[in-house]
Amino acid sequence: MDITLKSVTKRYGKNTILDGVSATFAQGRTVALIGPSGGGKSTLLRCINGLNTYDEGQIRVGEHELPCGPDGAGSSVCQSVRKLLGMVFQDFRLFPHLTAIENIIEAPIQVLGLNAEEARIRARQLLDRVGLAQRADHYPSQLSGGQQQRVAIARALAMEPRGLLCDEITSALDPELKGEILDVLIDLRSEGLTLIVVTHEMGFARKAADHVAVLGGGKILEEGPPEQVFEAPQMERTKQFLRRVMA
């Protein structure tokens, strides 16, 4: 399931957030989206998942083409795409009144039609997969930030997606907890999921990504394998960004 963007443009009023972005994210690959804050990275993820509409261009997720224009977000195509691509946010977005396992089983029961027992078996497997088998009955307030984020990843995986979109999911965590999340993503990479990760963690981008794209000013400034982008960047704006974040 490739994800393809052709000349994608997104505006908010007079501000152009994405300015003719074209890219292909191949099935089973891990792509790190890096670049200056405000460059359009999070907006790009939201457009790919149909959470935001876009104004011009084309976005295809597998066989689905997301509709262009202001009325696209509620379409059946967007709903189909959201079943294919899970999304994990910076701020966890867990339901505070539900336990970890209850957060995970909610969507499979309501959207996929799983019965409660089947959903719980699957949820416990996922909690074990992210190292939280002993925290199934804990509420979000009883979990650390890193643990909450791992529950959020398990919740996304419970929908059996073919890919995950991760929006700066370590930025609110301290260094030790960041390591927990990055280890989970590296494990998922080995299982063949397509991962598109907006990150400021240059170490993760170098270690875990197959492909790195630098997004700034609404445009892809440069892209390629991690060793190329980090060790031999071609664009001056890329060089300036990397000098700043890796100083």
SSE blueprint:
Elements: E1 3-12, E2 15-25, E3 30-34, H1 41-48, E4 56-61, E5 64-66, H2 76-84, E6 85-88, H3 100-112, H4 116-129, H5 145-157, E7 163-167, H6 175-190, E8 194-198, H7 202-208, E9 211-216, E10 219-224, H8 226-231, H9 236-245
Parallel strand pairs: 3-8, 3-9, 6-7, 7-8
Antiparallel strand pairs: 1-2, 1-4, 4-5, 9-10
Helix pairs in contact: 3-4, 3-5, 4-5, 5-6
How would you portray this structure in words?
The N and C termini lie far apart (37 Å). The protein is globular, with a radius of gyration of 18 Å. 39% of the residues lie in helices and 25% in strands. It has a single domain (3-92, 162-245), classed as Rossmann fold (3-Layer(aba) Sandwich), CATH 3.40.50.300. With 247 residues, it is an alpha/beta fold. The strands form 2 sheets. It has a 6-stranded mixed β-sheet, with helices on both faces. It has a 4-stranded antiparallel β-sheet with strand order 2-1-4-5, covered by helices on one side.
Helix/strand order, N-terminal first: EEEHEEHEHHHEHEHEEHH
Q: Count the strands?
A: 10
- The helix tally amounts to 9
Major beta sheet summary: 6 strands, mixed
Strand content: 15-25%
Give a quick rundown of the structure.
The chain has 247 residues and is of the alpha/beta class.
Task: Sum up the structure in keywords.
four-stranded antiparallel β-sheet, single chain, six-stranded mixed β-sheet, alpha/beta, Rossmann fold, 9 helices
